Amino acid sequence: MTRLSKSPSKHYHIIPSLVLITLLVGMWGVVPAQAAINGPLAKAVAQGKQIFLHDTFGGRGITCNACHRGAGLAATVTPNGAKFPSLSNAATIFPRYSARAERVITLQDQIRACVTGALGGTPPANDSLTMRALVSYLTSLSQGKPIDMGGKPK
User: Fold this and answer.
1) Is 140 exposed, middle or buried (0-12, 13-18, 19+ CB in 10 A)?
2) How far apart, in whole angstroms, are the C-alpha atoms of residue 115 and residue 124?
3) Which of 13, 15, 134, 154 shows the greatest Cβ crowding within 10 Å of its Cβ?
4) What is the rounded distance in angstroms from the CA atom of residue 11 to the CA atom of residue 68?
5) Domains and their CATH numbers in the chain
6) Alpha helix locations (H) across the chain?
């Protein structure tokens, strides 16, 4: 059994060790964003990216990537002048209030609205594998960014 002395001067040598351990845990505990995604989650992210890039949802023949270029990572101005933000922080800004919908909406609600409106397609059900894959992909784009509920797309 270790006995602690009542003299504080004998414990100062512990403090540098604790600081060093804290720094090392902090350095090792932070992993690169993509390194933390593996296994079934990585599969869902990859599926979501493929859906984002290639699925038209039975609509007008365009994909999510038609408006949100660079697989969602680039801000876009379409030939008709419409501006679309990068989706690099999409998962961090939901839920948010939508004045158009006059209610608080989730990321899933936004995906369904985009598929219905912009793509003219049939949106995936909230509990579908397609929706889970899309949400997984969009969330992966936001990994490491601070939560900013109600914030603006960047």
Assistant:
1) buried
2) 8
3) 134
4) 57
5) 37-142 (1.10.760.10)
6) 14-29, 39-54, 64-67, 107-117, 129-142
User: What does DSSP say about strands 83-84 and 96-98: parallel, antiparallel, or unpaired?
Assistant: unpaired
- Sign, CA dihedral 123-124-130-133, equals positive
DSSP string, 89-108: TGGGS-SEEETTTTEEE-HH
Identity of residue 104: V
pLDDT in tens, the chain (154 residues): 544 444 444 444 444 443 333 333 343 333 334 446 789 999 999 999 999 999 999 999 999 999 999 999 999 988 788 898 899 999 999 999 999 899 999 999 999 999 999 999 999 999 999 999 999 999 999 999 999 998 988 8
**Residue located via tokens 């922080």:** 89
Neighbouring C-beta atoms of residue 126, cutoff 10 Å: 13
Long-range pairs of 54-59 with CB within 8 A, sequence gap ≥ 24: 55/130, 56/119, 56/121, 57/115, 57/119, 57/121, 57/122, 57/123, 57/124, 58/121, 58/122, 59/115, 59/119, 59/120, 59/121, 59/122
Q: Take residue 6 and report the two structure tokens written for it.
A: 């009542």
